[in-house]
Specification:
Number of strands of chain A: 15
CATH superfamily of the largest domain in chain A: Medium-chain alcohol dehydrogenases, catalytic domain
Structural class of chain A: alpha/beta
Distance between the termini of chain A: 15 Å
Largest interface: A-B, 29 and 29 residues
Oligomer: homodimer
Number of helices of chain A: 11
CATH topology of the largest domain in chain A: Quinone Oxidoreductase, Chain A, domain 1
Order of helices and strands of chain A: EEEHEEEHEHEHEHEHEHEHHEHEHE
Helix content of chain A: 25-40%
Shape of chain A: globular
CATH class of the largest domain in chain A: Alpha Beta
Strand content of chain A: 25-35%
Radius of gyration of chain A: 20 Å
Largest sheet of chain A: 7 strands, mixed
Chain lengths: 340, 340
Amino acid sequence: MHNTQVQLAKQPEGNPKTSDFQVVKADVAKLSDGQFLARNIYLSLDPYMRGAIAGRHMGHQRLNQGDVIYGRCLAEVMESKHPGYKAGENIVIESGWQEYYVSGGEADDEIRKVDATLAPLAANLGVLGMPGLTAWAGVEKLANPALGSTFVVTAAAGPVGGTAGQLAKIKGCRAVGIAGSDKKCRLVVNEYGFDACVNYKNKNWTDELKAACPNGIDTYFDNVGGPVLDAVTQQLNLYGKVIMCGLVSQYNRASDSPGHGHNLGVFVGKRAQLLGLVVYDYYARFGEYLKAAAPLLKAGRLKFHDDRVEGIDKAPEHFVKLMNGLNTGKALVAVGPEKL
Amino acid sequence: MHNTQVQLAKQPEGNPKTSDFQVVKADVAKLSDGQFLARNIYLSLDPYMRGAIAGRHMGHQRLNQGDVIYGRCLAEVMESKHPGYKAGENIVIESGWQEYYVSGGEADDEIRKVDATLAPLAANLGVLGMPGLTAWAGVEKLANPALGSTFVVTAAAGPVGGTAGQLAKIKGCRAVGIAGSDKKCRLVVNEYGFDACVNYKNKNWTDELKAACPNGIDTYFDNVGGPVLDAVTQQLNLYGKVIMCGLVSQYNRASDSPGHGHNLGVFVGKRAQLLGLVVYDYYARFGEYLKAAAPLLKAGRLKFHDDRVEGIDKAPEHFVKLMNGLNTGKALVAVGPEKL
């Protein structure tokens, strides 16, 4: 059986290019006892992968030429010689940019079994997956925004930002998004139901943000860092919170660049709280999140939007788009059919 | 009656110089109804004044040539036409770098009456004053460091850092100071009783800090910011807290300099909490602090160390020393005798 893989051709410098990747055909190894064969259905593309490829993301070794690219997939167990997994089960697994993956079981791969009745399968990589858990942890466990307070989030069209703003809104906040295109902003307001969304590529975007946040900003869920963080901070209220979730603006930087520096004086004067968020801390509480989110999803109060392409060979192009901020919604690759 | 004042001669550029100040003799105004005359006994010199002079510190207008320099003093009410103040009372008052001050009462001047039996009068500007309250707020209200955890503080010989480390030690922490000279470090260890103190001017100071903090750093009470913060952060434990209290390393910067930038990525990975501290928020709780600290002071468990000069005309020289890190302990000017 053939297995189409996407491997590293060479380490990206700055913004990744499709030529940094190579698509190859490999064979699928035979199963040994204690192993199972997973068939990837959806591959999740996420900004953290840029750092993982370069060895800058926790728990990920820098990739070498010929290594399969890191990636979390919604997969189906095809065949199993492992007592914990049965053929036909759906799982989320760190199985990489490829069609098939032989797993030795949970210890290796952070596998999570998926209840296929909760939501469309692909949602388990976005709103009900790691991005959704990230949003929930930041909103519910770190920020705990007050009723009637103003909650601002960047990358608001994406699955982390989009879910975070919706959860804050459901908790009684004014939710204001920041995103990089008018198309994204329309998604954020019209589909996700935020109160407002500002396109930070507009020249007067900070004035627009001020107009959208007449009472100032109480919580800023930051996915981007850099100059946008500096600008938003100017509008942060006294005792405001900044959830430091991601620094997408810094992920494409050259390996020898120190990255954008932030002056901390403004945070002292505002008595701000800056809280670092790493989603891996919350994996043990996935069940708690699903209990809160799945009913909201079923009831149509929590929305999601996929931006998908078909075929594993399209993954590099779609990832390059993501890292240039050109996709809208959750970036996915449909690797194979949901059912064979 | 003559009143010797220290006024601004010109706005300092970078490190302040004595020539930025001018000593002049003025007259004391006659009292109107609702006013009282304060005689300054001790003037407190604090790093925040550098920013206040330049209009960079909250609530302080930028000073012009001829303005009396901002300053908090331990004073005695000499004569009063204000119903709230009686001759002979000791107060802490924002009365400036001068011998006498006519006050209109609390609304103008953030006046605090002092119990002269609690401690030596000068202590009300240091360990039992605003610096002590700052330390207490950071340790007790923001950091709340765990028993057995490691607590690191910069400017450890000064009244904020010295008190913070002692309070943390009394709460069962390992207290490690960072200071700018071996003399300061001896004060910190031998008088204040810290477990260790590192001179950050030593070439291998980060190795020395590592040796002094074998279990890493759980709480970092930061008074300096800049490259020292960057270096300490490398040794911060997961879930560590940074109390952002001051940025002394940045106070002398030129007005057109953006200051030192900090990369926030490291704080995300460490799930750090950065908490901004402004002591003014805690003035309403001064009594709570004194209730905790005064008995410790009386029992000899909480120590302080003054670095004083005699005469208001010596204030500029002593302030320049302070802003160059050349004083040891709480910088004070003895303006007049405790009792006439």
